[in-house]
Automatic annotation (TrEMBL):
It comes from the Bacteria. CDD domains: ABC_DR_subfamily_A (cd03230). This is Putative ABC transporter ATP-binding protein YxlF. Belongs to the ABC transporter superfamily. GO terms for molecular function: ATP binding; ATP hydrolysis activity. It comes from Stieleria neptunia. Its EC number is 3.6.3.-. Residues 6-242 form the ABC transporter domain. It holds the Pfam family ABC_tran. Keywords: ATP-binding, Hydrolase, Nucleotide-binding, Transport.
């Protein structure tokens, strides 16, 4: 296993603030540990208020952790060595409206100490990568949100960082804009870039991420490759058997198998939905159906979707999404 690019151990952040109702304590991040490895697109998924932005801000050294420790590319978070190798796209990047894409990149390049020649050649490459070549001298005032966000990606990539951190990269974009940004992320993944992104958009994470952590109320509820997050017990085998009259399922399966029979007849077949935990059970169902001469017209193993996994893990938290909050009096 290569060394992790993002290495987080028991990171915790408690905000304390004063309000009219008294002092408040908010446990925004409560002992999070996670690792992201080279070449991964790692997704931090969670409802609003789960603590995603706070975690990202701690990684970038903008917010100081209350306890715990973390390293980016082997360097302690907050150190200039860590920061210099990270590209960041904030949730709402502000580019001055008088800029064009090219002049904005020139501005950001100068800020990070790049020479004019470096900025020039890198800008050409990046404008092409994010699909803004040909539109690079127009005022950003005319840009759609998706174009604006792609310019943000180019800005984050300017100094060729080893890690790209994206905070809600497609939030507020229409489907076209989302698709455009997703394509850029795909290209970066194909190029081997390590990306750490946070999002509350399930579909987004499902499409672009190789591994995911589900965060709710400041805690990790699950972590792993998307396929492995699905609950094995929620796996269902859908079988359709051809026939005019409904077979005697009890005679076929006996009492050893829990078979749920859907009442609806599907075209010229009957559909069964069977909870299965492993391949042996799937084989057993097929064996029994074939032994009793049933013709199988369709067979499908349906896994729990990421949305179902998410709702199972953070169902009530997704509705009551605010992180642990306590009024201290
Ligand atoms: N500077 C702050 N001071 C006090 N509380 C804060 C501060 N920043 C965030 N919080 C609180 O910490 C909790 C986590 O917020 P955070 O922004 O990290 O969540 P998030 O998952 O990024 O949510 P969203 O998707 O809405 O941006 C929330 O209850 C939020 O109100």
């Amino acid at each position: 296993m290569p060394d992790p690019i993002v290495d987080v151990h028991q990171l915790r952040k408690t905000y304390r603030s004063l309000s009219l109702t008294g002092r408040r304590r908010i446990d925004a991040v409560r002992g999070v540990s996670l690792q992201a490895y080279p070449g991964e697109v790692f997704g931090l998924l969670g409802p609003n208020g789960a603590g995603k932005t706070t975690l990202i801000k701690m990684l970038l050294g903008v917010v100081k952790p209350s306890s715990g420790h973390a390293r980016l590319l082997g360097q302690p978070i907050g150190s200039s060595a860590a920061r210099s190798r990270v590209g960041y796209l904030p949730e709402s990047l502000r580019v001055d409206r008088h800029h064009s894409a090219r002049s904005a990149l020139r501005y950001y390049g100068r800020m990070s100490g790049m020479t004019s020649a470096e900025i020039h050649s890198r800008s050409d490459e990046l404008l092409k990568l994010v699909g803004l070549e040909g539109r690079d001298r127009e005022s950003v005032r005319r840009f759609s949100k998706g174009m604006y966000q792609r310019l943000g990606l180019a800005q984050a990539l300017l100094h060729d960082p080893d890690l790209l951190v994206l905070d809600e990269p497609t939030d507020g974009l229409d489907p076209v804009g989302r698709n455009e940004v997703r394509k850029v992320i795909d290209r970066l993944r194909e190029g081997g870039k390590t990306i750490f992104l946070n999002s509350h958009i399930l579909q987004e994470v499902e499409m672009v991420c190789t591994r995911v952590a589900i965060l709710a109320k400041g805690e990790i509820k699950a972590i792993g490759p998307i396929d492995e997050l699905a609950h094995r017990d929620q796996q269902k085998l859908i079988v359709e058997v051809l026939g005019e009259t409904e077979p005697d399922w009890h005679a076929i399966f006996g009492d050893s198998m829990q078979v749920e029979i859907e009442s609806t007849r599907v075209r010229d077949a009957f559909r069964l939905s069977i909870a299965v935990v492993d391949q042996d059970q799937i084989n057993a169902v097929v064996d029994r159906l074939r032994r009793s001469d049933q013709s199988i017209a369709r067979l499908e193993v349906r896994r729990e979707s990421l949305e179902e996994t998410f709702m199972r893990l953070v169902g009530t938290d997704a509705i009551d999404a605010v992180a642990g909050e306590e009024v201290l009096s």
